[in-house]
Amino acid sequence: MKVASAFRWTAAAAIITAMLASAVSFRADAQSEYMRDRMPYDAFDRLPKTDIEVPGGIIHVALAPGDFMLSREKLLDWIRMSARAVTTYYGRFPVNSLRLLLVPVDGGRIRGGTTWGYRGAAIRIPLGRDSTEDILRRDWVMVHEMVHTALPDMPDRYAWLSEGLAVYIEPVARVQAGDLSAREIWQAMMRDMPKGLPQAGDQGLDNTGTWGRKYWGGAMFCLLADIEIRKASDNRLGLQDAMRGVLAAGGNHEQGWPIERILATADKAVGVDVLTRLHNEMGSKPVTPDLASLWRDLGLKRVGEDLEFDDTAPLATIRKAITAPPVR
Ligand SMILES: [Zn+2]
Known about the structure:
There is one protein chain. The protein is an alpha/beta fold. It has 2 domains: 2-148, no CATH class; 156-323, no CATH class. Helices cover 47% and strands 13% of the residues. It contains 14 helices and 8 strands. The strands form 2 sheets. Strands 1-5-6-4-3-2 form a 6-stranded mixed sheet. The longest helix has 22 residues, at 211-232. The two termini are 28 Å apart. Bound molecules: zinc ion. Zinc ion binds at residues 1-3, 144, 148, 163, 166. Residues 1-3, 144, 148, 163, 166 line the site of zinc ion.
């Protein structure tokens, strides 16, 4: 969830931080070396590692001392499945080399995650030692953190872009890889996207650091951008192609780029200036899209607890293209 660099450590969702804090305080002595604010690169490099080969790179996996209920092989399967979703979306793994540290903590769930880039791409996941295979199969955190590795580091005020991309791309990538159903993610978007709408006093995405604006405001920006790129390209290209363009230009989390360069590079890959233009509109002032008509145009109809797809809606083909497995 968090993206951290050498000089700052982004506090993300307060609830996650609180969960982390409680996880850290338990067996604090055993874990302190591995749960400090920064990535424990030196301690990591001393641990035994298993290398996983992925298209475009290698993931070096280390487990901090302690026991997991699941075998090492099951944990590696979870990492492979997550990497496959990210690779499906980006066409390659975002970095040539990733250090991935799993730290056993109390409980049976994934307790958040942090991604660093300053001494080489690194992810740390505090993982409940009682976590089951089923918990891991349904987990989103690993894919979310891996998506962070695909975006250059930026100043804190643009965290909405890195979190928004991670929140938006994670489920889309998992649907494209066959790990989730499209119905589930559109249902979740309809439920959660309103959390990203500006509240009273909002000064645009760049100047409003609330949880809702950072995570769901950013995701809303990404959905709008995806739709606009597809409208402008006769539905041939989308946000996926734009973000692949950033990777192709050498941009990933080990680099620090200004937001303007990231957006311009992504725009260039799809031949339209959608991202730059949307940022100009939504960065410095509150913009409230009409979500009800957006869902209607995409052909999403809520029927009680269920969701119905209307394939005759004007943006239905765009909705389908967003989650379709890429041809390359
Ligand atoms: Zn995140």
